[in-house]
Each structure stands twice: as structure tokens, then as C-alpha cells.
């Protein structure tokens, strides 16, 4: 599976951190039978290897009054793809940018504080980008399933 490149202890540590990233080294150590110091060293090694990238708080924008979440599928000329991606990276409303297979496509997620802010992104930024051939948007109405990270 996904964790095959890790030894058994590292796999157990990663699984516990996915369940609760705020779990202390002591708690992890108690659950898997090693010392707090050993857990800390293993977690630091996983971070240095890039296995663990970050610890974060995930905010559900649909629970915030007025927030609008939207996905965009953007087709660009091949020579303009990276320039478009770089311009989008600068926009604080844009939360994720993925390069995906297909016609030089970008998959972009944005969360705006209001419809007006989303319109500003669309008309003031996306519509102004040179090299964009087509842009389709999909407003998220509700979250049905949303898994972060690996499925274990």
C-alpha cells in the first residue's frame, strides 16, 4: 500500500498522526511501545525525508457565512501554462493549483469570502490572463466526502 516504503514503527506513527496531528510524542510512544525521544527522532526523520510535509488546520469554508468555494478547469496554450500558474499563485483567493493531464490544463481551487470576491477573481484575474483558451468553473454546493492525505 502507500506506506510500504516505511518500516512498521514509522507506519504506525504516520497512521496516528493522520488521525490526530496534535498527538504528543509521549502519547504516540505509549501506543506503539517506544520512548518519546525515539518517536521525536523518527518524526523528525520523516519530516526531513519529506514524508511528512506539514501540520495544518483545515477550515471548512462552507461553515463560514458567505464563503464561496469553487473549482476551475483552465485550458491554456502550452507555452502559457506556467505563466498562468505563476500569476494564479500570487492571488490569495486561490488555495490550490494542480497541473493535470489533458489539454495543458490546470485544476484550480479558490475560496472567496463572498460572491463579489469570487467575481473579482473571475473577471479581474482569470478573464485577464493571456494564454487562457477556456476556463470552466464549478461552485461547490456541499461537501459529501473529503479525505485529506492518504487513505490508510
Summarize the structure in words.
- The chain is α+β, with helices and mostly antiparallel strands and 152 residues long.
- It is 36% helix and 21% strand.
- The chain is built from 5 helices and 4 strands; from the N terminus they run H-H-H-E-H-E-E-H-E.
- The chain has helices spanning 8-19, 25-32, 36-49, 81-89, 115-125, and strands at residues 68-76, 94-100, 105-112, 132-139.
- The chain has a 4-stranded antiparallel β-sheet.
- Strand 2 (94-100) and strand 3 form a beta hairpin.
- It starts with 7 loop residues before the first helix and ends in a 13-residue tail after the last strand.
Topology summary:
Elements: H1 8-19, H2 25-32, H3 36-49, E1 68-76, H4 81-89, E2 94-100, E3 105-112, H5 115-125, E4 132-139
Antiparallel strand pairs: 1-3, 1-4, 2-3
Amino acid at each position: 500500500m502507500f506506506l510500504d516504503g516505511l518500516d512498521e514503527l514509522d507506519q504506525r506513527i504516520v497512521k496516528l498522526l493522520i488521525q490526530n496531528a496534535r498527538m504528543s510524542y509521549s502519547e504516540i510512544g505509549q501506543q506503539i511501545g517506544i520512548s518519546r525521544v525515539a518517536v521525536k527522532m523518527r518524526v523528525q526523520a520523516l519530516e526531513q525525508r519529506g514524508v511528512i510535509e506539514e501540520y495544518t488546520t483545515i477550515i471548512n469554508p462552507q461553515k463560514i457565512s458567505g464563503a464561496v468555494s469553487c473549482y476551475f478547469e483552465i485550458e491554456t496554450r502550452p507555452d502559457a501554462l506556467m505563466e498562468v500558474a505563476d500569476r494564479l499563485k500570487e492571488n490569495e483567493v486561490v488555495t490550490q493549483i494542480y497541473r493535470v493531464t489533458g489539454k495543458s490544463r490546470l485544476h484550480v481551487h479558490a475560496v472567496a469570502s463572498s460572491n463579489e470576491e469570487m467575481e473579482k477573481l473571475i473577471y479581474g484575474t482569470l478573464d485577464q490572463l493571456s494564454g487562457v483558451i477556456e476556463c470552466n468553473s464549478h461552485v461547490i454546493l456541499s461537501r459529501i466526502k473529503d479525505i485529506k492525505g492518504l487513505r490508510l
